[in-house]
Write the structure tokens for this entry.
Amino acid sequence: MKSSELVQGTLDMLILKTLALEPLHGYGIALRIEQISKGVFRVNPGSLFPAFRRLERAGWIKPEWRPTENNRRAKFYTLTGLGRKQLKAETEEWGRQLAAITRILQAGAGAIGDW
Amino acid sequence: MFRIQTIVAGVRALIRKKEAEREMDEELRGYLDAAAKDKLLSGMSQEEALRAARVEMGSVDAVKDEIRRAGWESRLETLWQDVRYGLRQLKRNPGFTTVVVITLALGIGANSTVFSVLNGLFLRALPVPEPQRVVSFSDTNFTWADYVAYRDQAKSFESLSTSHAFPFTANLNSTRPPQHIYGGFVTGNFLTTLQIKPALGRGFLPDEDQISSPKPVVILSYQFWRKRFGGDPEILGKSIRLNNASYSVVGVMPSDLRTVDVGIAPDLWAPMATLSQLDVTEAQAHPFTSDEQGFWIFGRLKAPVSRQKALAEVNVIHDRLHPVVGKEIKRPVALATDGVFPGELGNMFLGVSSVVMAVAGLVLLIACVNIANLLLARGTSRRREIAIRLAIGAGRGRIIRQLMIGNLMLAFLGAAAGLFLAWAASKAVAGVELPLNWPIVLNFAPDLRVLWVTLGIALLTSLVFGLTPSARTTRLDLNSSLRDHGTAATAFATPWTRQALVMVQVAVSVVVLAAAMLFLHSLWNGFSIDLGFRPDHLLIATLDTTAQGYSKERSALFFQQLEEQVSVLPGVRSASIVAPLPLGIYSSGSPVSIPGTSRSVDANRHVVGPRFFETMGIPILKGRSFRDIPASSPPVAIINRVLAERLFPAQDPIRQRVHWWNKDYEIAGVAGDAKSKTIGETLTPCLYQLAAQNAQDLADFSSMGIYLVVKTAGEPKALAPVVEREVERLDPGLPVYGVETMEEQVGKSLVLARLTASFLGVFGFLALTLAAVGLYGLMSYSVAARTREIAIRTALGASAGKTLSMLARQGLSTVGVGLGIGLAASLAVGRLVSSLLYGVRSIDPVTFVTVPLVLLGVACLAILAPARRAAKVDPMVALRHE
């Protein structure tokens, strides 16, 4: 299975989205992103954990130590109200950009044909 | 996005750092465990799963570093780490640190010193509120009428003041002994314009400066009050006598305000309108009606008015006041920040100090090159350490940053020591006596500006000496660096850089040495120059009789008496008055013509006593001297040889008639040529008048000083009290000032040359030493790196002599290239500074022979010591060492 680099700046959004469903710990988040994207995106810990720190500082996610199923404790992250708002804003922005890029790519083919 | 929350979180992370670290460890371990468990489920063995999870994560430390870097506080923290690391490195190599810090202290100290002097002369503002708004009109001269016009018409200024461009001299008769003082005569708004708050008492009041009814009041300078009046707290309201007129003290200036013009520090200030009470010469007493251009105008800009706008307005008024006549070229008025060094002397200083500053920069460059070389050598020995750190995941950027922080710390240590040197040196420079006869106060002590500039220099220095070595040290092939032990092969990886650095160093030190030699040679010429008179065994004392209220006739008589009485004192050979003093502060000149012809020659003149020529040791070449010529006989003059040749190329000048100013004179004799105005002048035509016949001319010079010169049999200074007592016998109220020997006076006129030469001499020595150290370092290093090669050569039969000559040849070829470049550059520099040199051609043979010889000599020493050591190497020992 071939995995791709994440589009620059989307990791934060994906983490927020993942946490919108339920609180998860680090590995859980990585796994979830990989699963949902059907293995297209694979996030390595070197970018994942700094992103947690960043989002935590911004007040969008909140860490909490909880026991795991095998009786150890793990740091779970929960989406905050602020984070939910941010996710909404980023999703909308992403939608707009995606639509615009798609339009440009499609129009491009036609425009070249007209010349 | 830097919100309070982020700051709080950062600070909290800093405070509970240990806990945060533990949590981070736990979180990452949890991640690894979870990942491994997943892989276990997919069928891997326990060991394989753990390994795969680790590989996926990469270096745990690198991840942790990434996480830490997500918060701002980590930057602070790593900075602190790097600083601590740097400190440890400095402590671990005390020898290295000491050498570098001393080198930098000398290099940076040289620059800070020169800058302190420039700062004191040209940059330091007045100690008044908002000094940048206080400007003075410059580049042209002003009359009282000009001032009044500007004061009434210019709208850009809150207030405009004026003072005489030169301080007034007066005799303070109310103290014992009487004293010659320098007064600033200023308009009544002087203190309000500058917004000076007196330390004691008050400023002038508007009605004290009324031309019609002036009030005789003075404000004392703080220093004068302390020195002359013992800091008397009851001084206010007391009266002092100036030129026998009574003035009452109304205030004392603050201690830091010694002068409003750089340097000239009056003892007291008085309203200009009170000048008429001082019974000085006509033009000085009534400046308001004369068209004398001796006024210096300064004012405070209104807050919103820009300097350009004010300048435009001032020049509009200037053009209205002085319309251009015909093809006359008129200089526009300029505005300068008040407090900077004025006029021609300032420009001269600027020229010379630019040269000195440039040379100081070169010295620092040499120092930098030395340190760069040391760092390169050290980098080589630290290769392994750095390679290991790179291998375990340290970023190259981080390591470079660490090295640079270490360098910066070295630079700052050097700067701190350099500032101390600058402080001491600038104090010494400020103590040098200038060729001026008014009290001058120069403050070259380093201030905040000097501090900032020094820090800037340090920063720049650390970049110059540190960037290349840091970049090189971290650009490694990890495999080879780790594999072998970093001796022979890798150590020689950058021979070319180091060789080039030494070439630069040699070249630059040649330039510095050449500059130093040129100025030293120039100074030597200045000292050994034929003055045309004999400066030895001459004592000078200065008097101002007009200030004492003497009429011109009484002055002339007084000086005749004084000359006669002093001449018969034991230990005195002869005595005479002279004004202006040859090589003194002021001079006087005008055309001398032959009546009835169009022939005229510009000449300097001196009013002298009858025994002037024998006192000064100027020979009378033809005719007679002034001795035994009665005051009542028709006026006679003595001219010097140049003037005689120019006026009367084909005739005998004796008994010829010449016209000077407003009188005809018969030539009584021709004197030898002597220096009149400056020591650097070429032969200057000169005319001497007899004081007894020209009482008015003598009186005109009185306020500038009439000089009594005394030829003594022994040490001239020893006679000073005797001469002073003779003056006191004639007039106990008349102050004697400026008592010094002619040799001191001549020495002062060489002050600029002496200062320049001593600065450059010190710099030249520094440059040579640093270059020699650099060369020695390079040689020892390259010899050490080639021990093995040399050992093999020896083993194969090369003799010690042959090895030695090979090494010496290689070292000297590096020096030779640098020397060539340096000499070429020196020629250009010589041409650039030729106008500042006295009697030295830009291609000065002395300089261009001495400098290469000295440099080669020093270079040979620096090369031979390590080369000899290498040639004596025992091949068995050297090869086994590998």
Q: What stands out?
A: Chain A touches chain B through 25 residues (CB under 8 Å).
